[in-house]
Amino acid sequence: MTYTTFNSAWKGLEALEMLSRVPGQHRFHPLGFDGGPMKLPGQASVFEATEAMLSTARQHGVLLGCIQEHFVQDRALLELRTFSAWEWSPRSRARKVSGQLVPYTPDERTEALASQVRRLNEFLGAFSMEGGRFFGLYRGFNTGKDAEVISWDKGGRLYAYGDGAYQWLSGDQRSLITINGESTVEVDISASYLTVFHGLTKQPLDTASGDLWGRIEIGDKLVAKDWTNLSLTVGARLAVWPKEKSKKYRECIGRDLEADYPVRDTEAKVLTAFPSLKRLDGTLTWAEMMFAESEVVIATMTKLMEEGVPAFPVFDSIIVPLSKVRLATGVLHDEFYKRIGKRPLLKTKSGLHGASEAIRAAVHDDERWVSALDL
Predict the structure, then answer these.
(1) In this predicted structure, which of 73-77, 120-124, 196-200 has the lowest mean pLDDT?
(2) At 282, is the pLDDT very low, low, confident or very high (cuts 50, 70, 90)?
(3) Contacting residues for 277 by C-beta, under 8 A, at least 6 apart
(4) Taking the domains of the chain in order of start, what are their residue ranges?
(5) In the chain, what's the furthest Cα-to-Cα distance?
(6) Phi-psi region of 111 (alpha: psi -120 to 50; beta: other; left: phi over 0)
(7) pLDDT at residue 173 above 90?
(8) Beta carbons of 50 and 109 less than 8 angstroms apart
(9) Per-residue pLDDT for 322 more than 70?
């Protein structure tokens, strides 16, 4: 909204006594460095809806509790960005800078990708979600360091947009989501990047025997998981614990991360459990693994759509109605195996009766095709 439009709007609403305003003001400190006043950050104008506006809104069915339903939220189906980067300054220290948007010329490839997302949005938009908000999905890609080289095989995850979108809720909050009044279950690909890495590098990995993280002989499995995922993200074995990880560990545990779990000792124990990680040499990036994972999720959603079953993505998991967990799990398993070449370890944290049993039945009781070499 332009300043002219906004200026006219608030003045009109103020004249109708539907809006109150506290004007902004400049702020100064009397003792500046040169003996004169020092300018401080100013105070912005504050606008507040009056009871007259709220009453009028209520009369027309516009309530604060569901205010977002009265705004149409939309965005491009595809988004292309450069990789995020870290920058350092004496004032802010290290901070992550989001990748920059990259303009691109639409072609047959982009139209096919956009059409895929458009179909999913139209299908999922026909279902009623309670406990979370669904406005639509877009697919975000990365190009790497060179913004001039456009690639559509890096990144590619589906992101939910809009204020309060379901993806950005906590796991506990997402567990309360219903679709058309039915309880839902989030089916998760456990150790997704780890499995994708072994699949794309064609290294052996047995997922049939259960918990992958449990194979690492270390007290705190979360520490082992962090080392593994951070190494996979940067494409090389982690040599030093990042400051933010050390800080978070101290806040939660009250001790020093490096003292409790020296990074070299952690590396050795992870490599004992998964020796294929010795091959981490930077040739396979997180963006390529993310793309492979996203292709699995989108293929699963598309196949379920053909069966009339909604599946809402949460990066490496899907939210589906409780009655369709067995079907959805089977489709997710098959699409992962078809594209990655490894059987995924599928789990759920849902406490709903029958959820875990349905996942187990889909993987172990139903006939799932796998190569004899993987048995």
Answers:
(1) 73-77
(2) confident
(3) 197, 228, 231, 237, 270, 271
(4) 78-194+296-374, 212-279
(5) 83
(6) alpha
(7) yes
(8) no
(9) yes
